[in-house]
Write a structure and sequence with these properties.
Layout (H helix, E strand, L loop, with lengths): L1 E2 L13 E4 L38 H10 L6 H7 L8 E7 H9 L10 E5 L11 E4 L3 H9 L5 E6 L1 H6 L6 E6 L19 E10 L2 E8 L1
Parallel strand pairs: 2-7, 3-4, 3-6, 4-5
Antiparallel strand pairs: 1-2, 7-9, 8-9
Length: 217
């Protein structure tokens, strides 16, 4: 995810926290559906909401997405999808435990070893991995410290609860829009709020899917 501080002009070139909703590639893919406003609440055995829209796995959509954001492709899928480019937007990813859990279920201790990874959780039982830092303290302090460092932007991968805690640190929102409507859904961010956003770009990924980027002003 990418966000701007509310008082930061949209043209300011600081390191940003970006909320980037990652396209679902396969069931159990980390971040595949960690932040979607169109997902109906799921029960055990129910399909991923993105699985209900065939275009979410269209090769053209995936190709365009990972050409622009190669760093968001999990390590175990990079060879299969032919993703070899270096990070373009993010060199750091921040996520909650539930977003990290599919990687653990797949037998991985780290889904994005090509990035600096932080998992914010109260749990004490996460497997150790040299490429991943478990954070038990305030995520706001973590993000502010990361923003003060040199580097590419910071990807807030999910989920809604963590995004709600970091809402005042969010600078940008990168959102994929599918041509399908659900009657109810999982919030992108928890809490009651209204965000003034400025549409920066809207790009077709093919198969009726748009990638819209918004700056918070």
């Amino acid at each position: 995810m990418q966000f701007f501080l509310p008082t930061t002009p949209c043209t300011t070139r600081y390191r940003k926290l970006v909320c980037h909703q990652v396209l679902g590639v396969s069931e159990g893919t980390p971040c595949a559906n960690s932040s979607t406003s169109s997902a109906s609440p799921r029960t055990a055995g129910s399909p991923q909401p993105t699985a209900l829209w065939p275009g979410s796995r269209d090769p053209q959509v995936l190709g365009r997405l990972f050409t622009e954001y190669p760093e968001t492709c999990p390590a175990h899928l990079r060879d299969a999808l032919g993703v070899t480019d270096n990070p373009r937007h993010f060199d750091t990813v921040v996520m909650g435990y539930r977003t990290h859990a599919p990687a653990l279920a797949a037998g991985l201790t780290s889904a994005y070893p090509h990035l600096q990874q932080y998992v914010v959780t109260h749990r004490q039982d996460l497997p150790r991995d040299p490429q991943l830092t478990v954070v038990h303290e305030d995520p706001v302090a973590l993000v502010r410290d990361l923003k003060a460092q040199d580097g590419l932007n910071i990807w807030l991968c999910g989920g809604a609860n963590l995004a709600g805690q970091l809402v005042d640190e969010i600078d940008e929102l990168h959102l994929k829009v599918y041509p399908i409507i659900f009657g109810s859904g999982v919030p992108l961010v928890t809490g009651s709020m209204a965000w003034p956003l400025q549409l920066r770009t809207s790009t077709s990924l093919g198969a009726g899917t748009l990638l819209n980027t918004y700056a918070r002003c």
